[in-house]
Amino acid sequence: MATILRSARLLLATILGVGAALFSAANADEPSTGAKSPATVILAGQIIDGRADKPIKDGVIVIRGNLIEAVGKQGEIAIPEGATIIDAKNETVLPGLIDTHGHLNLRYGAGGFGGVNGLNSQELAPGAEQMLYMVRDARASLLSGVTTMRMVSGGTPDNPIDLYIREGIKRGIVPGPRIIYGGTGLTPTGGHGSEGVWTDGPWEAVKRVRRDALDGAEWLKILLIDLSPTETMYTDEELRMIISEAHRWGMKVTVHATGRWGSSMKHAILAGADNIEHARPLTDEIIKLLVKHDVSVSLTPLVYVGFRPDESTWDYLDNVATGPADWIEYGRKQYFDYLEKNPEVRTVDRPYEDGESHRGKRDFFPSNKTQQGQALAAFKAGVRISLGLDTVYYGAIGNAIEYLIEGGFAPMDAIRAATSVSAEAIGYGDRIGVIEPGKHADLISLRADPLNERWAWSKIHLVYKDGVRYDTLSWR
């Protein structure tokens, strides 16, 4: 079996290599000087640069190659001779959105067996089957405005599917967001995640860390659920070994940490984790620990609202939706329809109900009031909060932004959570997340004002990644 799997990996790598020769593209991680590149100039009604507290009215952005060359007000920025002019004078231009918790190979509620409504069996499916979904979901994500996605554990060590989609996108074979590869994940026997990533004992875990490192992972993910008010699923010895070895190889570590008591978060933070996924419950004690140890949080609010996609949701994406506007609006409508039918979701915490054995006793789904209130408290205390979609509504990160605003975040702060703060949290703050000279030209535009119009993210127009325009691509 191992020989077959190695052969499959070699075959897929060969296919990617041939594809790269046929469909050459610039390496998105290597800035171009743009010395001989013609300029593109975007004239914007307003620019939200991802950092400043106020937008630039009547703005100009000059792009050359894959980098931003100049940003400012019209009349103050020279327009290069021969530049291509893009008229977005009635639009808002923002940095490309960043999804910090991606699983392009998984579709919540799309069938399968095992824990988390079939996701475990989806993860163990043949790589070619998973790649069909990934190619579709990557395209939908990019066209919906997500220009960077950190993948947080996909596939298995013998089938590192996230690595393959990263290479396919980087080499120009398929369109999609810039992929930050987060390895294949580690969870103890019986833990959250498929048996393909079960790993026990410090030395077995170290071997797994090294394998992900050799595959080029920039992040490593550990999956934890509370066992009790004081214990989590890995021992402290295992956690320290995993995290220290990942750091030794130059990787950062993020930890799925959920439960009724917060014990998983406490152990992860004290063991040296760089980021926490989902982060529930965000108690005052845990918020203080996050601030003290400078640990960021990646929230995935839409996956915990209570509404669960099913096969009809994914059929809508694949066969009915006519474009990103249609798809994003579909997600917004399903969210509000669910809240109207289940108003208690706004205020009442619920038992965990996703089919994982024994987890219901040790975890819960927070109400909107609980999650939004805790997120706002963490933000005000100084915790860096980014946003991810997990396994629902690929690309519709704007709807997660609105969830934060609904919970009391200022619109500009919520937008920063999906742009500059996300970039810093994943270690890419020097390259993306802000519209300023020298940064990669990752930009989107809305035919709306997201500072004053709620749930307007379906009005997306321009999508640029690394200076290349993608919104002109077909939806399918």
Average pLDDT: 89
Number of strands: 17
Rg for CA atoms: 21 Å
- Using the alpha-carbon principal axes, give the shape: globular
CATH C-level class of the largest domain is Alpha Beta
Query: Which sheet architecture does the biggest sheet show?
Result: 7 strands, mixed
CATH topology of the largest domain, anyone?
TIM Barrel
Number of helices: 14
Q: How many domains comprise the coordinates? A: 2
List keywords for this structure.
5-stranded parallel beta sheet, Urease, subunit C, domain 1, TIM Barrel, alpha/beta, 476 residues, disordered N terminus, 2 domains
Structure explained in plain terms:
There is one protein chain. This protein is of the alpha/beta class and 476 residues long. The protein has two domains: 39-95 and 435-469, Urease, subunit C, domain 1 (Roll); 97-310 and 315-324 and 340-425, TIM Barrel, CATH 3.20.20.140. Helices cover 34% and strands 20% of the residues. It has 14 helices and 17 strands. The protein has helices at 2-22, 119-123, 127-143, 161-170, 202-214, 236-248, 263-271, 284-292, 311-320, 324-341, 368-381, 397-406, 411-417, 420-425, and strands at residues 39-47, 56-64, 67-73, 84-95, 97-102, 146-151, 178-180, 219-225, 252-258, 275-280, 296-299, 350-351, 364-365, 385-387, 443-446, 460-465, 468-469. The strands form four sheets. Strands 3-2-1-4-15-16-17 form a seven-stranded mixed β-sheet, with no helix packed on it. Strand 9, helix 7 and strand 10 form a beta-alpha-beta unit. It is globular. Residues 1-8, 13-28 and 113-117 have low confidence and may be disordered.
